[in-house]
Design brief:
With about 120 residues, this protein is of the alpha+beta class. It is built from two helices and six strands, in the order αββαββββ. It has a single domain, classed as Nuclear Transport Factor 2, Chain: A. A hairpin with a 2-residue loop joins β3 and β4.
């Protein structure tokens, strides 16, 4: 992976951490997810499309009282215009912190690297 691709992936993750979760700017998800993205949250149905994903995150962040998230990339494999990231995240809420593991399939859309498929599970 080139240094530029690595920087681009970090920037998208930063938008999710700082703008979406940190500031509650769910419209910034337009710069995180592809137009036809899908998320596969634990214990819930798959959610498809950016507008539905925005609604999901808005409701989940409020219900869980999320105050911060920190994403940590463990490994990335670049496959042309697609990348697969394996990582861990710490989700901080008003009642404490929890760890999740995740896989994101990235796609290039409109010149930017964005999340196309996003799945996560709690670490027990």
């Amino acid at each position: 992976m080139t240094p530029q691709v690595a920087a681009d992936l970090r920037e998208t993750n930063r938008i999710f951490e700082e703008e979406v979760v940190g500031r509650g700017d769910f419209e910034a998800l337009n710069r995180v997810y592809t137009w036809g993205a899908r998320i596969l949250p634990p214990g819930a149905e798959m959610v498809g499309g950016r507008d539905a994903i925005k609604d999901f995150w808005r409701q989940a962040a409020s219900a869980m009282q999320v105050t911060a998230i920190a994403l940590r990339t463990v490994d990335v494999e670049l496959l042309g215009e697609t990348a697969v990231e394996i990582g861990r995240a710490t989700i901080t809420t008003k009642s404490g912190a929890s760890e999740v593991k995740y896989v994101v399939v990235w796609k290039r859309e409109d010149g930017s690297w964005k999340w196309h498929i996003d799945i996560w599970n709690p670490v027990s």
